[in-house]
Here is the input.
Amino acid sequence: MKWKDRLVNNNSLPHPTYVKQCAELLNSFAKERMSALEQYEQLFEDHVWQEELKLISSHENLEFILKECSKKTVTFDNVQTSIPYYASSRDWMGLLIDALFTELKIIHIDDKQKNSVLKLQAYLQEDNLKKIIIIVPENQNLTLIINENNSLSNLFQSVTIIAQRNTRVNIVHTPCAPLASSYYNYMLHLFEDAQVCFGLTNGKSDYERMMIETFLHEQGGHCVIAGFYEIAHEQRSILLTNNVHRAGNSTSFVRLHGIVRDDAVALYRGLIDIENKNNGVLAEQYNKNMLLSKNARAISLPLLQVKTHQVKCAHGSAIGKLDDEQLFYLQARAINHKCAQQLLLCAFLRDSLTALNKEVGNELEKRVQDNVQTSFSHLSDK
Here is the structure.
């Protein structure tokens, strides 16, 4: 099928049937990961991929595809967990982007090395379109660092981490490249007594979209996702988390704080999904946003989907401005207005890091310190 045959008239947008093709490819990818790559090559010509990238990098086109999927014009219900390491997703747009990845790298952590540190940017030098699967063997520890700094205009990155029994995985996501758009898809699979600590900050992209899906397949799984984002000017930030508890006696925590100013817009949508008969689950998710200008916007949607009893769940969100009483308290102690604002905002960001372990928390603490002057230089001295 030629590229022009898959477009809607006048709008140059992908036809829903093409989205369905991507879903079908992804389904086959779930069954046979490696052979699916050959199917991609047979179905699409090389030059078509370049057109795909141009299309996906357009914000308007992303909205169109997401709208079509939300209407259930195309559903991905046939994407099944035929392989436990690649489960069905609730993020339609993420699935579509995932289906377009042209290159797959599988990294198997050395089971003879107790503590491994993996810098993911080493695998992102040659191309800006990567799908990486990282397998962490039993009883191993892994620290994954994502802080790429390149000259690409758009970045697409899909990372699947398979944390096998009794593993400890630390993830530090601190991108710093000023890109036009960036898309991050993370899929975390935790098995018996596996622990994942995911610390994140946003990058400098004009449009940034991050999806983190966590599947706790067996008892004892424990996942923490925490961090902060700061956006300004006309930046758009979309952050999505799905924590799916497929086994009882598992825990998950999400704590994300954001600072939004100028004409920027931040969107957070989180879901805690506890499947039937999985008792003993402890799950929490919180999102707080601080608005520093009149036109700044934040949308926060923490959701619960609980299908069983004997669980403890909590969720919440808050959107507001700096507290005048707290500012007055600090100013009454000879701290000028701007310094008082900085202190409150730094405390607001650091509060999001309390759920992280020491190793990951210290890395994100450096980001707070490095950006405190430049990020808050716009604050008023009055």
Q: What stands out?
A: Residues 1-19, 25-95 have pLDDT under 50 and may be disordered. Residues 3-70 form one domain.
